[in-house]
Design goal:
By secondary structure, the protein is an alpha/beta fold. The chain is 33% helix and 19% strand. Bound molecules: S-adenosylmethionine (SAM). S-adenosylmethionine (SAM) binds next to loops.
Length: 264
């Protein structure tokens, strides 16, 4: 899909409630994963790590009555066309959710770097993070900070958009989720092969095993799993042979989840 058509498509996805439905599914999976460890019927202190401009999970967890803080470099009230567009996008998202827009004074959004969290030790019951770890350039610092700000026994629910999947170069599309077909002129897994198409956002290029090893240094791993797949039909035997260092499972995992608990 041509890049220019992506924005109207994104708006349509918001208007039709498709984005909200996907975020709700993700929240439901998160709640199911953490249910054996945290009673979420009680209001909890939650940190949304890199909440994003749309603030999708921040908004959903607040809606459930929890005290949610979001931190993101993008939480900066700058006047720009893109920020204005996101004001509208958030209005549509919250309208689909059935709530009016949150007054500025009730927002708990901090502009900051996730590698140096401006929060006290043991402040949170739960840290969530969606589609963000792949952008962090100092993952060990972030994981150590997540441990520091979690209460003993607190849980981290981390969902990563891995570099190894077809859309892992973040330069294919942001509206086709999962990716169905490659844009004209672009080969599947270009970012792991020829790298003809440049990257437009920072990416650490970490693999699943690296994330798991880093979390294992600080946390008890409760589980890891691939929540969403993409690109099975794109993976020809030729590409599979070329990328033989990767398993088929890794090459087709669009959303890799780590559930980890801070030791008591
Ligand atoms: C793809 S967005 C995901 C946002 C959101 N979690 C979501 O699911 O829509 C990644 C976010 O990570 C933020 N980010 C990347 N590196 C960061 C850092 N070191 N500190 C704070 N935020 C960061 C970006 O500003 C961006 O909003």
């Amino acid at each position: 899909m041509p890049k220019l058509l992506e924005y109207p498509r994104y708006a349509l996805q918001l208007l039709r409630g498709e984005r909200l439905a996907g975020e709700r599914d993700q929240q439901a999976d998160c709640l199911a994963d953490i249910a054996p460890m945290i009673d979420m019927q009680v209001p909890r202190q939650i940190l949304d790590l890199a909440n994003g401009r749309l603030r999708p999970q921040y908004t959903l967890f607040k809606r459930l009555g929890h005290a949610v803080t979001g931190i993101d470099m993008a939480n900066w009230p700058q006047r720009s066309a893109i920020n204005l567009a996101y004001v509208v996008a958030r209005q549509i998202y919250t309208w689909r959710l059935g709530i009016t827009y949150e007054p500025r004074k009730r927002r708990t959004l901090v502009c900051g770097d996730v590698g140096r969290l401006p929060f006290p030790d043991a402040a949170y019951d739960l840290v969530i993070s969606a589609a963000a770890f792949e952008h962090f350039l100092d993952v060990p610092a972030v994981v150590a900070e997540v441990k520091r700000v979690l209460k003993p026994g607190g849980v981290a629910w981390i969902s990563i958009h891995p570099f190894a999947c077809p859309s892992g170069g973040h330069n294919v599309t942001f509206t086709e989720y999962p990716l169905q077909r490659m844009p004209a002129g672009m080969e599947a897994w270009d970012h792991l092969r020829q790298r003809r198409i440049p990257f437009t956002v920072p990416l650490n290029e970490w693999r699943q095993a690296q994330y798991v090893a880093e979390f294992t240094r600080h946390f008890e791993i409760i589980k890891t799993y691939c929540r969403t797949r993409e690109g099975d039909a794109l993976l020809t035997t030729q590409i599979e042979a070329e990328l033989r260092d990767y398993s088929r499972d890794e090459l087709t995992c669009l959303q890799f989840v780590i559930v980890a608990r801070k030791p008591l």
